[in-house]
Amino acid sequence: MNKFMTLYLVASLVFLLSFLSHINVSASVGDTGDIKKTDFSKQLFMVDTTTSFDTLFQHCLTILYNNPDSTRKLIQKAFTYNLFDNQVQKARSLNLLGVTHHLQANYIKALDYYYEALSLAVELNDNNRIADIYNNVGNVNLKIGNYKEALDAFLKATKYYNDLGLTANEASVLNNIGLLYMDIKNFDKARSHFRQAYHGFEVKNDSIGMAATLSNIGILFDENENADSAFFYINRAIGINTRTDNKYGLCISLQAKANTFFTKRMYEQAIGYYYKSNAVAQSINHSYQKGFTYLGLSNAQLKTGEIKTALQNAGLAMQIADEINNIRLKQETHESLAQIYEAEGDFKKALEHFRTSVDLKAEMINQTKLHQIYTLEIQQLSQAKEIQQLEIQRQELLLNQKNTIILFIVVAFLLIIVGVYLYYHNYRYRQRASLQETIISLTEKKSRAAVEAEIQERKRIGQELHDGLGQMLSVARLNISVLQQKSSLTEERKKELLDAAIYSVDKAFYELRDISHNLAPSILTEKGFLGALKELSDQINQSKLMKVHLETYGLNGSLDNLIENTLYRAVQELLNNAIKHAKATNFYLQLVKSDSEITLMVEDNGIGFNMDEIYVLEGGGLRNIRSRVENLSGSVFVDAMADRGTIITIVIPLKTV
User: Fold this and answer.
1) pLDDT tens, 93-106?
2) Phi and psi of 224, rounded to 5°?
3) Least CB-packed of 138, 428, 452, 456 within 10 Å?
4) Domains of the chain, each with CATH number or no CATH
5) 603, 588, 600, 590: which is closest to 551 by C-alpha?
6) Distance CA 356, CA 621 (A)
7) Nearest to 635 by CA among 610, 601, 604, 605
């Protein structure tokens, strides 16, 4: 399995678990029930000056995870109608506004509101609220990888909670610190903090916190590739969430189990638990969690080859990401879509989604550049003038850094594009050059083979004319010359010489006919390809030189003239080789014709030859055959062994010709 995908799943689940009990909104989400999307707008427009802050805030907590945008609008309505009875309520509202942006991975906005809420909490000396906000600030820094600032904020939150005796809240921060150490691969410290957190939740009988910590411990073991222990702790978390009917915790624990199956490459089991997690998320109408379960399903189905289903689930994840405007879910979904379209072979769409994913990731990274400024502001909240000055500097720095980052990204992107283009251009140029060289080499070889075949053929014809026809004509001339020069010969002797001369001329005539027949066999026109093969076989069989066995399959109708001539000349040449060189007594000839090709296979029981010496033995005849066949885009296969005989197969495609 792709290591990157494993890390991505673990990181995604850690990101999800951090919202289970570790983002503090200064109130319990408790028994708020399910509110459908159709109710959001009603709640939004029903708010007026008669609405109580507590009622409005409770509604906000109810819809927070499903619809952060609507939550934000409701809180802004509270500011519009000044529904606050005191500054504490205002600080809680500012903190909640930060959470709405936090849930959508808009970290700069989240830190803006956390900072403003913290300023007010410090002014009010509200230590409980200060601890809550420090916990949230630590969470933001944990998400963006600012581990030093995250740990500093968590430790401050822990101190406030400890002083206030809020054991469950302190355990929540310890759980967050465990996530931090797990993120930086310090597994021993992570395990130690998770155990402390679990003990704190156990003391307070906080089932939500206990289940969340057990799930984190399971993920920790999964990170260490100890699946058995991972399943043990995750199953415990599932058991607690089931007994306490904590459906939100249950859907996250089920997803943790699905991710563990995924890392073990047990994709079918992973898909089953993603569906279970999704069903629970559906039952509580939790859009945020539904989005990540659809994303998990998409990744697992991509591994099992269910491309269309993976694409559908990625689409559902993207739809939810758009609805709740969560940047991180959008970024990870675009990343998955890039892999899906790459698997489909649609590289254009894959590249589009990959670029969007990179842009969104850059956007999240860009949002984190001001964490050091926030650290300074938080440390000096008691000095109003310095706070105001730092705020001005922060705004200027934000603008400068944003411009610098944008310029850097644009330059880097252009450099990457130019580099990719140059690399691709060079690669294509080298490919074309290599292909051209190969074509030239093959063309030269084929041209040389054709010339050599023509030379060999001319030598053979010359040899036949000289050795056969020339010799016979010489004998005839000699006999006629004797008749001309010796008039004293008896009539009987003259008749003998004349008969011998006529016999030599007849033999020369037949020899000339055979030579011309070999050059352009008219028998193919007279009797057809199959008839010509049968007559050739009969001639050999009548000569008693060798027994020819002829079998044909599918030879109905005529073939292309060029193919017929090539195959007929090949059979002639191979028969000649079997008789003269192989000293064979049996020659098996088989022709098979299909819709796409014709195959000629010959086998003899001759003395054969060593395949290692084929470059020596592949002389004029066999080389001529190979040259003619390759000119028809065909292939010649030779199977020979000394003292065993020879098998030669010729395959010629019909459609190409």
Assistant:
1) 888 888 888 877 77
2) -85, 10
3) 428
4) 9-142 (1.25.40), 165-264 (1.25.40.10), 283-384+393-420 (1.25.40.10), 427-519 (no CATH), 526-653 (3.30.565.10)
5) 590
6) 65
7) 601
Residue 632 three-state SS: coil
Residues, the chain = 657
For residue 602, the model assigns a pLDDT of: 93
Residue pair 130/118 in contact by the 8 Å Cβ criterion: yes
- Would you put residue 554 in left (φ > 0), alpha (ψ -120 to 50) or beta? left
Tokens of 595: 């819709």
What pLDDT digit, counting tens, does each position of 117-176 carry?
888 888 888 888 889 989 998 888 887 778 888 888 899 999 999 989 998 899 999 999
**What is the spatial distance between Cα 264 and Cα 2, in angstroms, rounded to a whole number?**
11
The pTM of this model reads 0.50
Longest dimension (CA), the chain: 158
Q: How far apart are CA 240 and CA 557, in angstroms?
A: 81
Euclidean distance between the first and the last CA atom of the chain, given in angstroms as a whole number: 47
Q: Which amino acid type is present at position 296?
A: G
Count CA atoms within 13 Å of residue 421 on its CB side: 6
**Over the stretch 443-467, which tens digit does the pLDDT of each residue have?**
777 766 666 666 666 766 776 666 6
Q: Would you give the DSSP letter of residue 2?
A: -
Between the alpha carbon of residue 239 and those of residues 215, 244, 261, 327, 399, the distances in Å are 11, 9, 18, 32, 50
Choose among 311, 308, 307: nearest CA to 294: 311
Token pair 């029930």 in the structure block, residue: 33
Q: Identify the residue whose tokens are 């017929």.
A: 564
Please give the structure tokens belonging to residue 317: 């994840």
Residue 605 — φ and ψ, nearest 5°? -105, 30
CA angle 200, 95, 149 (to 5 degrees): 65
